[in-house]
Write a structure and sequence with these properties.
Blueprint: E1 13-15, E2 20-24, H1 35-50, E3 63-71, H2 73-78, H3 81-92, E4 110-119, E5 130-137, E6 146-148
Parallel strand pairs: 3-4
Antiparallel strand pairs: 1-6, 2-5, 3-5
Helix pairs in contact: 1-3
Length: 152
């Protein structure tokens, strides 16, 4: 199904005081036999965001990470949140073999992880699945709060 068949109706929820965030119209599939393929495809989709030179100062630091995933009714019921988190963490960490851009060297740098699975609203025949990833430097004094980001 092509991009023309997707539409975003979901609020853009990001981690309060996020350094960076990305929103993408995609779904994370957690089937073991497709995990490698999904990680590769998702890295390709997020590559330009992951290349952000501003992020260089955070790639070795401890991080707070928030993942908001909007899923259609069927996927919402079937997909386990821990499996979604594993795929996304693998997608964002350094891949020693490929040399592709990454957000952090190792997922042990993620000190706190907030993952929120939301059932998306249906809109005709359009796919409304989407993913929002946001992060900030870890600060134990700050709560992990999602805020709605206005998009122009």
């Amino acid at each position: 199904m092509g991009l023309a068949s997707k539409i975003n109706l979901n609020p853009l929820l990001v981690l309060e005081n996020a350094i960076g965030f990305i929103h993408d119209l995609q779904v994370i599939i957690t089937k073991k036999e497709r995990k490698t393929e999904i990680i590769r495809e998702s890295r390709n989709r997020l590559e330009s965001w992951l290349k952000n030179r501003y992020f260089d100062q955070y790639r070795n630091k401890k991080l707070d990470l928030a993942i908001v995933i909007y899923l259609d009714k069927n996927r919402y019921r079937r997909q386990d949140i821990d499996n979604i988190a594993k795929v996304i963490l693998d997608m964002l960490k350094k891949d020693k073999e490929s040399g592709r851009p990454y957000l952090f060297k190792d997922d042990s740098q993620v000190i706190r992880l907030l993952i929120y699975k939301i059932e998306t609203k249906k809109f005709g025949r359009y796919k409304t699945n989407s993913l929002v990833i946001s992060f900030r430097e870890h600060d134990p004094k700050k709560q992990m709060i999602l805020v709605e980001q206005n998009v122009l």
